[in-house]
């Protein structure tokens, strides 16, 4: 049994700590540990601690490219036991992502076995898979055994781990990084390594170069899965200069012709980090919901390469328009963000631009070069010291042998006799007998000469910053040659293009199944739609104190135009209106209509007509229908009115004569040519009043006569001859309208 632990008889020293201070201290400690040791990549090697530990662990296991594979379980176990005590699954998941060629642009791990696929399937357990490093990982680790970087104790102090890797590959931008820290995040898409190297070489020549100038080489991201970036050059440049932005990426597709005029769309590349199986499921779901009326079917014919087949509803469908509808509703178009939030010098989190990011990498390469050069210098100096001792021994071999054979303590005797250092004396005493051959002296002198020449070069390098940058440039060129545009891995996969421009109306129409409907409007402004063109709507129920105002035929793809008393036109999509069940919803639910405004007229937008709009003060003008379409809920101001005046009348321009009637029951007829055509304004005086207001307007063909509807809905008319008394000019007061409705309304409406 263990020894019983008793509490101290005397209370230990107690320190009073404010709870607020204690919580703040612990939260900051947690935040900093997350930022520095977990979530943010280092700008120098582009790795998070877990990735760095995996690669270093594989290095210790001698899993270089070309060597036999080892079980992933062995790698995970060693990394967890020695460097990363945070769970085996977290380590394995990180290693898997480094091995997936659809996740990493330049994989750091060469995996054997099931490491998952682009469909989103999970990899096999680590006891079934094997791994080793790739050439990219080797470049990142090159020089780590030559004091290229600093080491620190591991979590339990039993061994050491590298603070950062030598980083002979531009990994941060080439492979990208994703991470969420406390209060900050990182999102770096992958890029083309050869382009990054070219930009880095320019930066070596011109250290003060800005991010914008580097875009000559770095065009944009280069995703492992390809795709097409459709952002403008300006927005891409802005993203790289500020370190924040996004890239709109679309799937790559082609049209394949079939028999008898049929065709299908074949998708061969999808955006980065999009799971193909989930993408297909989403398209199928939208098809079932009838949200893709242009698409007939979708199927996956992928083997090793991506091949998604999209069948159109009919041969008459525009393929570009069909794909536009898919881009808007699915992940075939994805926005990939850029947030260059990285650790500078391994300590400071900072959002940097492209130039600063590459500068950090180049500065690190130079630091590693200097450290490796100093390490090699020390090695050469130690070896030269030993060679100097060997040379003395060969020149005095008989005396050396005599001292070794006769002296009880040969080391001090050798040092005294030949003025050797302790290192030289130890080297002579540890010399093998086979080294005493005659040729050895010549080889020693040759090695000495070569080492002294090398040492001279290293000292020259360490003393000249120009030579150092020249050496770094050679290293960068070597990487560029390995991953050049002519190599399978280095060839650019992501292309650039401008997004095709389509008619917005056509695109909106592409999202809706085209079906006939009947739009029903109540007197209190409630709207609903009935399926089909319903002739008899007498049986419709309305709310208490409400009744039918009017109804008209439309289609689900139609747009409605609402003209309000505030002089604004509002646009409504028929597809978004409530169905026939219930009483519908107020029109105000779909538009931002002022409380004191009301709807004058609601009709289907046909796009090619002209309207005569008029206010209660008798002002008006002719406007094109296309100038009345609004793109926002707030509407579009067309007729300018000032309280207490309001917009009160609208008529379709069909004829050569205007009829204006006031609340005083006076009417005037005048030629349409006297009314100007405008896009917006107050207009001109149509009819003159002293105390009355304008009630209604109509445009008609004078030869055919004026037609209107009475209160009972019966159509009435007057011939040109009968209308002679009312003919005049614009702005006349007019005459009493005998024979016209007492309501002072023509009730012609807008069809």
Give a quick summary of the entry.
With 751 residues, the protein is α+β, with helices and mostly antiparallel strands. The protein is built from 18 helices and 35 strands.
Structure write-up:
The chain has 751 residues and is α+β, with helices and mostly antiparallel strands. It has four domains: 170 residues, Alpha-Beta Complex (Topoisomerase II, domain 5), CATH 3.90.199.10; 80 residues, Gyrase A, domain 2 (2-Layer Sandwich), CATH 3.30.1360.40; 114 residues, Topoisomerase, domain 3; 233 residues, Neuraminidase. It is 32% helix and 22% strand. The chain is built from 18 helices and 35 strands. The strands form eleven sheets. Strands 14-9-8-17 form a four-stranded mixed beta sheet. It is elongated, with a radius of gyration of 42 Å. The relative contact order is 0.07. The mean pLDDT is 88.
Descriptive terms for the model:
751 residues; Gyrase A, domain 2; Topoisomerase, domain 3; 18 helices; 4-stranded antiparallel β-sheet; alpha+beta; Topoisomerase II, domain 5
Topology:
Layout: H1 19-39, H2 49-60, E1 70-71, H3 72-82, H4 88-99, E2 109-112, E3 130-133, H5 135-141, E4 151-153, E5 160-162, H6 171-175, E6 177-180, E7 185-188, H7 193-205, H8 211-214, E8 228-229, H9 233-242, E9 244-250, E10 252-257, E11 263-269, H10 276-288, E12 295-300, E13 308-312, H11 319-329, E14 333-339, E15 341-344, E16 348-351, H12 354-395, H13 397-406, H14 410-418, H15 422-429, H16 439-463, H17 465-482, E17 495-496, H18 504-510, E18 516-522, E19 526-531, E20 548-555, E21 559-564, E22 568-573, E23 585-586, E24 599-604, E25 610-615, E26 619-624, E27 636-637, E28 647-652, E29 657-662, E30 666-671, E31 684-685, E32 694-700, E33 706-709, E34 715-718, E35 735-736
Helix pairs in contact: 2-3, 7-12, 7-17, 11-18, 12-15, 12-16, 12-17, 13-14, 14-15, 16-17
């Amino acid at each position: 049994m263990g020894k019983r632990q008793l509490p101290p008889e005397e209370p230990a020293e107690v320190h009073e700590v404010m709870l607020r201070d204690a919580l703040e201290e612990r939260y900051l400690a947690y935040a900093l540990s997350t930022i520095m040791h977990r979530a943010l990549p280092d700008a120098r090697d582009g790795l998070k601690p877990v990735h760095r530990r995996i690669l270093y662990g594989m290095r210790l296991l001698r899993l270089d490219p070309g060597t036999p594979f080892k079980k992933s379980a062995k790698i995970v176990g060693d990394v967890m036991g020695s460097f990363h005590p945070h769970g085996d699954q977290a380590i394995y998941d990180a290693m898997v992502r480094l091995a997936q060629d659809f996740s990493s642009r330049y994989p750091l791990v060469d995996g054997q076995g099931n490491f998952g696929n682009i469909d989103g399937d999970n990899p096999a357990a680590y006891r079934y898979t094997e791994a080793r490093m790739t050439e990219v990982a080797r470049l990142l680790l090159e020089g780590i055994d030559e004091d290229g970087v600093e080491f620190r104790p591991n979590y339990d102090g039993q061994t050491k781990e590298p603070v950062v890797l030598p980083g002979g590959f531009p990994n941060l931008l080439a492979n990208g990084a994703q991470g969420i820290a406390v209060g900050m995040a990182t999102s770096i898409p992958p890029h083309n390594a050869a382009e990054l190297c070219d930009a880095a070489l320019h930066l070596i020549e011109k250290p003060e170069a800005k991010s914008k100038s580097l875009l000559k080489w770095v065009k944009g991201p280069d995703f492992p899965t390809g795709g097409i970036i459709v952002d403008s050059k300006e927005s891409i440049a802005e993203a790289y200069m500020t370190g924040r932005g996004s890239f709109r990426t679309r799937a790559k597709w082609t049209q394949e012709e079939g028999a008898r005029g049929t065709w299908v769309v074949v998708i061969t590349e999808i955006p980065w980090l999009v799971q193909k199986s989930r993408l297909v499921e989403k398209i199928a779901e939208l098809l079932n919901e009838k949200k893709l009326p242009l698409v007939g079917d979708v199927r996956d014919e992928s083997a090793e390469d991506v091949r998604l087949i999209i069948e159109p509803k009919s041969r008459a469908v525009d393929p570009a328009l069909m794909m536009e509808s898919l881009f808007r509703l699915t992940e075939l178009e994805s926005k990939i963000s850029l947030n260059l939030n990285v650790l500078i010098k391994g300590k400071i989190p900072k959002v940097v631009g492209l130039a600063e990011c590459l500068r950090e990498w180049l500065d690190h390469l130079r630091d590693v070069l200097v450290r490796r050069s100093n390490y090699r210098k020390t090695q050469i100096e130690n070896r030269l010291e030993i060679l100097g001792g060997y040379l003395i021994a060969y020149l005095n071999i008989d005396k050396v042998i005599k001292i070794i054979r006769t002296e009880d303590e040969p080391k001090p005797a050798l040092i005294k006799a030949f003025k050797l250092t302790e290192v030289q004396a130890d080297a002579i005493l540890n010399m093998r007998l086979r080294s005493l051959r005659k040729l050895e002296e010549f080889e020693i002198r040759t090695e000495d000469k070569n080492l002294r020449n090398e040492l001279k070069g290293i000292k020259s390098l360490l003393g000249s910053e120009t030579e150092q940058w020249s050496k770094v440039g050679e290293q960068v060129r070597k990487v560029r040659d390995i991953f050049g545009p002519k190599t399978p891995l280095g060839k650019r996969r992501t292309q650039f293009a401008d997004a095709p421009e389509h008619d917005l109306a056509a695109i909106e129409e592409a999202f809706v199944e085209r079906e006939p409907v009947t739009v029903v409007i109540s007197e209190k402004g409630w709207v609903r739609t009935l399926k089909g063109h319903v002739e008899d709507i007498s049986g419709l129920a309305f709310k208490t104190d409400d009744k039918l105002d009017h109804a008209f035929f439309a289609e689900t793809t139609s747009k409605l135009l609402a003209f309000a008393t505030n002089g604004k036109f509002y646009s409504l999509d028929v597809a978004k209106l409530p169905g026939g069940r219930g009483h519908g919803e107020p029109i105000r639910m779909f538009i931002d209509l002022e409380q004191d405004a009301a709807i004058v007229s609601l009709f289907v937008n046909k796009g090619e007509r002209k309207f005569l709009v008029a206010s209660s003060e008798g002002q008006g003008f002719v406007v094109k229908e296309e100038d009345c379409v609004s793109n926002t809920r707030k509407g579009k101001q067309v007729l300018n009115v000032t309280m207490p005046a309001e917009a009160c009348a609208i008529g379709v321009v069909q004829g050569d004569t205007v009829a204006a009637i006031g609340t005083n029951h006076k009417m005037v007829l005048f030629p349409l040519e006297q009314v100007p055509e405008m896009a917006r304004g107050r207009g001109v005086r149509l009819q003159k009043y002293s105390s009355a207001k304008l009630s209604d307007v109509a445009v008609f063909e004078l030869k055919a006569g004026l037609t209107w509807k009475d209160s009972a809905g019966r159509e009435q008319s007057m011939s040109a001859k009968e209308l002679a008394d009312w003919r005049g000019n614009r702005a006349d007061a007019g005459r009493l309208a005998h024979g016209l409705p007492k309501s002072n309304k023509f009730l012609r409406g807008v069809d």
